[in-house]
Amino acid sequence: MGEDKQGLLVMEVPMKAGGLMGQGQQNPVALVQAKFKEVEVVFKGWLAKQSLPVEAAVVTATSAVQGAAIGAFMGTLTSDGSSLLTPPPNGNFNPEAMASLKQAQALSGGPLIQARNFAVMTGVNAGISCVMKRLRGKEDVQSSMAAAFGSGAVFSLVSGMGGPNLAANAVTSGLFFALVQGGIFQLGQKFSQPPAEDVLYDRTRSMLSNLGLQSYEKNFKRGLLTDNILPLLTDSALRDVKIPPGPRLLILDHIERNSEPKDKRKVRR
Questions:
Q1: Please, are residues 61 and 43 in contact by the beta-carbon 8 Å criterion?
Q2: How far is 119 from 127, CA to CA, in rounded Å?
Q3: Is residue 108 a contact partner of residue 82, using CB atoms and an 8 Å limit?
Q4: For the residues 118-130, what does the mean pLDDT come to?
Q5: Who contacts 71 (Cβ-Cβ below 8 Å, separation ≥6)?
């Protein structure tokens, strides 16, 4: 009996130790990422139900905060060089030289200046993109260029780039931003052409992206739930392709709110 008890004790210690080690081996980074993803899905689902002004305001504000953080970090890297661009207090410069100096200061200022500039660019760009996508129902090169034009024009006004003619400088900067953004968008489209079968899931991909549910695109493909089937989707069909209840509710709500016309969609549960 003593040997049996000792054997049991010897066997129980590794099991308990293994349990402790199993708990300790959980990756805290993975846990944080999973929690962040969950919050992101809930936030995007809530945002998709809001009116256009509310959605645009929230998107603009959050993007501006992100841009300000990036700009502040970039400003710490260029703060030493910006001090060399400060004109002497009694220096006499012609308007063209002062315009060039202001442009250089806008591009290489300290943390506060760069935070302001990046906040304006990212916030205005995201806000206009949100409005264009909501109104036009798609994200294409025209919407991208319109957002870039707006962010470039506002950036020019805020940063003081260019000469004394603020309106002309705003238009010029906006056009430059729009052309650059349009070229980048076209290059991205050219080098990221989806496979032929993915064309059948364009609307599905856009819907899942708006809801933060991109990881479930493979479930739609596995069940052959193409764009033409979206108005016919039911809870049971989504359940059959292994989509959890929460994402199912978001998808069905999105389809019901955006179907045209709504009376053609009959939900069968």
A1: no
A2: 12
A3: yes
A4: 91
A5: 111, 114, 115, 116, 117, 118, 119
Q: What is the mean pLDDT of residues 81-93?
A: 50
> Is there a contact between 106 and 113 (Cβ–Cβ < 8 Å)?
yes
Enclosing H/E stretch for 96 = helix 95-107
Q: What pLDDT sits at residue 32?
A: 83
Please compute the mean of the pLDDT values over residues 183-190 and round it to a whole number.
83
Given phi > 0 = left and psi -120 to 50 = alpha, else beta, which region is 86?
Answer: beta
Mean residue pLDDT of the chain comes to: 77
Q: Token digits for 206?
A: 């856009």
Query: For position 113, what pLDDT does the model report?
Result: 84
Among the listed residues 103, 174, 168, 134, the one whose alpha carbon sits nearest the alpha carbon of residue 257: 134
Residues whose CB falls within 8 Å of the CB of residue 47, separated by 6 or more in sequence, listed in order: 55, 58, 59
